[in-house]
């Protein structure tokens, strides 16, 4: 029934390759099916002015898509002179999601910026960015712990995200582009590895949905995030 031939509760293939870039404190290339995102984490000994002197750390994110990440070329947003609304919304989501999983006291007064650059898009780029972004963040924090710059681990639990939706009347896990473009209901779920919710985005794209359907999608999301968290831990030696 699904265009890819997957079962309703079957995710696309997932791989995360770490140490992709030379200079970033943490980096990875996450591949979820045909969606590929390069994630890097940069540590800076400064924080935004509104928390300066508080002793709290800060995690933020930036997101972008390369011109040929999609079927037709997109103009670079830098050439247009401003970011689009979708880009701003997604990078704020990534930043909020990653921050929610950080003990900012343990991180200390420093900022980590996670950059997520979509190389190839086939649905679920924001979810892949959050999942890969946490891996880059984890690797950067590992370096802080190794050098003694921080004394306790500020990342108690992985943070990952997965999409679920109603496609052809059935609840499905991890929508690719053909499904996402035709789904009657589309949802993105951000959770911790232990199953705690961080953010849920759900909307009726072509039909309303029931509480029972929402619960079904939540169950699929829990299953998917648990799988992603295990992969995250395996590649970061947690």
From TrEMBL:
CDD domains assigned to the protein according to its UniProt record, in alphabetical order: RNase_PH_bact
Gene Ontology molecular function: 3'-5'-RNA exonuclease activity; tRNA binding; tRNA nucleotidyltransferase activity
Keyword Transferase: yes
EC number: 2.7.7.56
Enzyme class: transferase
Keyword rRNA processing tagged: yes
Domain (Exoribonuclease phosphorolytic) ranges: 10-140, 157-223
Function, as annotated: Phosphorolytic 3'-5' exoribonuclease that plays an important role in tRNA 3'-end maturation. Removes nucleotide residues following the 3'-CCA terminus of tRNAs; can also add nucleotides to the ends of RNA molecules by using nucleoside diphosphates as substrates, but this may not be physiologically important. Probably plays a role in initiation of 16S rRNA degradation (leading to ribosome degradation) during starvation.
PANTHER family membership: EXOSOME COMPLEX COMPONENT (PTHR11953), EXOSOME COMPLEX COMPONENT RRP41 (PTHR11953:SF0)
Protein name per UniProt: Ribonuclease PH
Organism: Poseidonocella pacifica
